[in-house]
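Shipment paperwork, digital attachment
Item: protein structure file
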Amino acid sequence: MPEYASIIALDALLADLRVGQARRRQLGMVRGELYRALERGGLPVGARRSLRRLLEQEALTTYLRLAESGALRERQVNGGYPPTSQATNAARHQCLHLLRTAYGLPSLRLGSGGRVPLRPTPDHGTLTALRRRLDQDLATAMSPGHTRLTAVLALVLDAAPRAGELTALRLTHFTPDHEAVYIQRRPQRGGGEADDAWFALSPLARAALERWLAVRTQLVERAHGTSRLWVSLFVNHDGTRHQEGRAVLRPPGLPLEEKGLLLSYRTGRARYGLTTLLPPKLEQLRRAVLDQTPPVPLDTAPTAHIG
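Attachment content:
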């Protein structure tokens, strides 16, 4: 296999990047595609000798066209090389943005005119302002809903869990001192390797969590008890009805499902004056954390493991 100076330099750049395992797999995919594009003569000759040339618009525009068409796949799919999915295309753009940023290059308009990457909100400065605002809120009296949302946001800022991963959290997913949380990753569409890991919690997250746990204890006492971290605040119904036709009511303190968590994010964003700091969707906040301040898993599991 030929060695290209640009790929050798790319490997060195990749080795210095601090990213999660899922992002590293995506970067490995991009590295393999770039190598195959060079090997097949699909990119400018200068891109073989220089990482800067490899990451310039001329080379990347051609690379993206080949990669999105499926021509750079490592193996066949159902006997052929079909175009890659929109999710893979988006991940590829995000990786290129990450590589250019790490190399000191600005973002580019590539492909069909979309920016690299699809820029999530908020940006780094807004994430910092959000942390400051949550810390200030914790020093005041807060409603149960505000307390719960603050704990949710603090955990997203520290560990970037998806909504489904958040709602799956149980008390046993934390160390006794609340210094770390265990996130059981749930890859989208059920594909890919689970990237479960422990993440250290910041003082902000620990304070927000302990504030919520005090509220949670009172709520759970009114119900039948649960180990789930997030519970409902008010009486609601589960969509079923008594024989008499009345809705079956559920007391506060029962496990909060993903739909309820997302609803509480949307309503809380406006109710607690966070619209300038939070994007409309929780997933956008998670993507912003991954892009701006990616959480780093702990190298070793804490002494107290999950039960």
